[in-house]
């Protein structure tokens, strides 16, 4: 899919990610030849274009970025309607011809290609070393981010770190080599990036690189690599972010999802509806089809949690802010609403929904009161946080405990910070390493419920599908009896990519 972006779109991203770049420059942001890299403005525009490739609707701007993650218990979808693409993966039955899967593949790749262009040419720009390095550091971070999602979703993928001819057909590289490339890029990003970009939200900085690196190391301790020596490396990187004191959990949980760039946002994609770059996974996408606003707009019923996932949530203020459990049904007069519980026979899905994704940015998703819905919008200006500080704290808690053979005082301190903000008491002391790890995984499931694969990737690295499927309730989309769970931790390579690369072998089970 080749998309031409308007200058306005590039200008918007320059505003959102660059803060003070001039709009009078010709960005040339989506052009790739090295000859366009002459000034710092050209370079900044090309870096901005990397963010666009990730954030756009055909990549991570819509719910289809999570298509293959619907096998998780924090995601399910309607048993009918036009949700077949999501429903198939919810049933662990998705295939390579799934059209929504394409966003998971193409989004990261197009970002990677644009990052390669920046990395290959940034040194040629007539500018200061500091500014050039900052641009390159962001490109290294974003390239690593793209590969991190690709390797966890699809397994072996080609490692392409230079500009290549469109006719090249590189082989898929082993998972361990892909991770080595990711680590190399993040180490380079750490070297080149400043600790922060004051007043410029959206720019990846050194703390973002270290946070991602901690998560990468932790993931490598699980399936398929099972490199347990990386626990200490994960703990060290996460601890460096914690010790920086740049982030905190002082914002109420619900507020994090109704405002942008909170004090716990380490890296988030910036969106702007008027600039043609909307986030469309908040608002309508997470609202019940049963709900119709006074202006006639309605929910899309794309995603919501499984019933037992909701029922197993810890009673606390975070749970109250996470789940939407009272459905508003518009009455015949078009102005008043009947409030019914999520499991009322008057609802067609009989599921709770996500409250935290309804508002968008201060209500530009769903505009409502406790008893009335005024409007339900599909396009929001909400930042989509890829890395929040609680992820770093929980990564540190797990990694430090496993590295030491049991939780340390600092391991407990990290998880208890997350629990305190959630409205929960401190975790039981004296747990074994495994019991503590399981407690952290449980905490992460509900701290990040419904958030871009966080729960799914825990299921994958710890190979939890048998337990997750066993806990499914009878009202969920049924999984075929002969499903081989071991073959479902990776998604299939999209069929069009297999056709372009006839030497590739499809992932097992597809």
UniProtKB/TrEMBL annotation:
Keyword tags: Cell outer membrane, Membrane, Signal
SUPFAM superfamilies: TPR-like (SSF48452)
Pfam families xref list: SusD-like_3 (PF14322), SusD_RagB (PF07980)
Residue ranges occupied by any SusD-like N-terminal domain in the UniProt entry: 103-218
Residue stretches making up the RagB/SusD domain: 380-510
One cellular-component annotation, GO: cell outer membrane
Keyword Membrane applies: yes
PROSITE patterns, A to Z: PROKAR_LIPOPROTEIN
Domain of life: Bacteria
Principal subcellular localization: membrane
Localization (cell): Cell outer membrane
Keyword Membrane: yes
Coiled-coil zones: none
Similarity comment: Belongs to the SusD family.
Name the record gives this protein: Starch-binding associating with outer membrane
Upper classification of the organism: Bacteria, Pseudomonadati, Bacteroidota, Cytophagia, Cytophagales
């Amino acid at each position: 899919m080749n998309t031409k972006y308007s200058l306005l779109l590039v200008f918007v991203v320059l505003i959102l990610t660059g803060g003070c770049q001039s709009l009078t420059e010709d960005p040339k942001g989506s052009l790739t030849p090295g000859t366009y890299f002459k000034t710092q403005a050209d370079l900044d525009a090309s870096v901005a274009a990397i963010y666009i490739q990730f954030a756009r609707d055909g990549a991570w701007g819509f719910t289809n970025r999570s298509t293959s993650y619907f096998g998780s218990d924090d995601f399910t979808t309607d048993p009918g309607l036009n949700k077949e693409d999501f429903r198939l993966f919810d049933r662990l039955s998705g295939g390579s011809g799934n059209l929504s899967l394409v966003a998971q593949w193409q989004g990261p790749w197009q970002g990677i290609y644009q990052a390669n262009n920046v990395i290959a040419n940034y040194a040629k720009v007539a500018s200061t070393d500091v500014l050039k390095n900052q641009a390159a550091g962001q490109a290294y971070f974003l390239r690593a981010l793209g590969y991190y999602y690709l390797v966890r979703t699809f397994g072996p993928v080609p490692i392409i770190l230079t500009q290549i001819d469109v006719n090249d057909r590189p082989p898929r590289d082993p998972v361990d080599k892909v991770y080595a490339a990711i680590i190399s890029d993040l180490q380079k990003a750490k070297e080149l990036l400043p600790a922060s970009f004051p007043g410029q939200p959206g720019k990846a900085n050194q703390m973002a690189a270290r946070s991602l690196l901690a998560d990468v190391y932790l993931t490598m301790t699980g399936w398929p690599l099972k490199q347990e020596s990386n626990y200490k490396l994960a703990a060290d990187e996460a601890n460096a972010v914690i010790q920086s004191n740049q982030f905190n959990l002082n914002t109420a949980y619900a507020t994090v999802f109704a405002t942008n760039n909170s004090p716990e946002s380490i890296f988030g994609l910036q969106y702007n509806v008027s600039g043609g770059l909307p986030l469309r996974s908040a608002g309508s996408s997470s609202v019940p089809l049963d709900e119709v606003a006074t202006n006639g707009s309605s929910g899309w019923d794309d995603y919501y949690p499984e019933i037992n996932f909701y029922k197993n949530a810890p009673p606390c203020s975070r749970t109250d802010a996470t789940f939407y459990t009272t459905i508003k049904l518009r009455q015949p007069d078009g102005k008043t609403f009947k409030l019914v519980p999520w499991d009322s026979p008057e609802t067609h899905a009989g599921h709770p929904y996500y409250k935290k994704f309804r508002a968008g940015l201060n209500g530009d998703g769903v505009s409502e009161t406790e008893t009335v819905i005024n409007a339900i919008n599909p396009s929001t200006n909400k930042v989509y946080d890829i890395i929040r500080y609680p992820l770093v704290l929980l990564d540190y808690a797990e990694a430090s405990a496993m590295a030491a053979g049991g939780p340390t005082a600092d391991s407990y301190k990290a998880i208890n910070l997350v629990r305190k903000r959630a409205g929960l008491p401190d975790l039981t002391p004296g747990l074994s390493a495994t019991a503590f790890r399981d407690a952290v995984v449980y905490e992460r499931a509900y701290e990040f419920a419904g958030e871009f694969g966080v729960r799914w990737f825990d299921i994958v690295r710890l190979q939890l599908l048998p337990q997750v499927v066993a806990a499914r309730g009878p009202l969920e989309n049924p999984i075929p009896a002969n499903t081989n769970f071991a073959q479902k931790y990776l998604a299939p390579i999209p069929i069009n990519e297999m056709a372009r690369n006839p030497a590739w072998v499809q992932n097992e089970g597809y």
